[in-house]
Amino acid sequence: MLTPEELLDVTGYKEDYVRVLILIWLNFKDDSLKGDLLRKQLQAEQIITSDNEELPVIDVETAQNIVINLLSARNGTDYNLVYSFRRYLQQGVNQKRFLEAVIKNLLRQNISYAELQGSLARSVSFDNFRQMLDCENKIDIRFLTLVNTQRLVTEASNPEQLLIKDDTKALSTIGQRWTVGLDIAGPEEKMFTHVGMERFKLIHEQIKLYAQEKNATFIIRVHVGEGYFQPCESQEDNNNGEGIDDIYADVNIYVFRAMQAWDLPEHISNSKEVNVTENEIWVISASGFCYEAESVIISGDELRQIIQSAKRLCSDGQ
Fold first, then answer.
1. Which of 58, 163, 231, 279 is surrounded by the fewest CB atoms within 10 Å?
2. What is the DSSP string of the chain?
């Protein structure tokens, strides 16, 4: 995900935070969830009151703070709502230019391989894409087609047909235009239904079949929390409870080098004792289904010592 500053740069808004805040307000103020969030942010900054919702003249610094909160899930902004604000600002943006910004963001973090949600835009030719990847610091990118979690939390209108046209269309993209799998993602609002679990199993089996046919490795990525199924509380139904974590259990550990202050965990990003421009600082976080650990920071030397110790333990068979 691009930083708020990178997003505003590629969308052409640059540092015009006041304009961005006004546009977001005008577009979302009547939406129950997003409008309520905006009101809370604006009331906290004493820009509007419960009796007066007319936006006055706003200073740049205040607008900047609110916009960054809205675009980066800070200060009470629900993570799922961030996507709505970002998608609104991204409307009409040249896809080639947007992809170039994403690649630049990944390179800044010293990431050499990434699997991005979505697909390679039709407006980006194979030659253009290869040129983007063939830069001074080599990077390899693959895509995962989105399957919305909503498909797994609803009952089937036709129990005889678990997969619908959108499912088969998503599956058909695998193995084409740098697409190597599916990304199951969406708001973490509901439990998976038993029918949804059957859909997932069917999708999983289909991808396994594709992999065998093409002698390739394909991916199903289920986002943290979005693959959680909570069994019915009634005792008689408890034995039927099943979740994605029963099939696809894991804990993911993410490690990346902090290149800017905003790369650091929020609780330490303003610390004067941590200087990321003069020191090699790495961020480690761990997450799994319905679990997320607080990120920690570590020096490059300490991280290398841990890796060397782990290699020694592996070589000793421990």
1. 279
2. ---HHHHHHHTT-TT-HHHHHHHHHHHHTTSHHHHHHHHHHHHHTTSS-SS--------HHHHHHHHHHHHTT-TT--HHHHHHHHHHHHTT--HHHHHHHHHHHHHHTT--EEEEES---TTS-HHHHHHHHSSSS--EEEEEEEEEGGGGSS--SSTT--S-HHHHHHHHTTTSTTEEEEEEE--S-SPPPHHHHHHHHHHHHHHHHHHHHHT---EEEE-TTTT--PPPSSHHHHTT---HHHHS--EEEEEEE--SGGGS-TTTTT-TT--TTTS-EEEEEEEETTEEPPPEEEEHHHHHHHHHHHHHHHHTT-
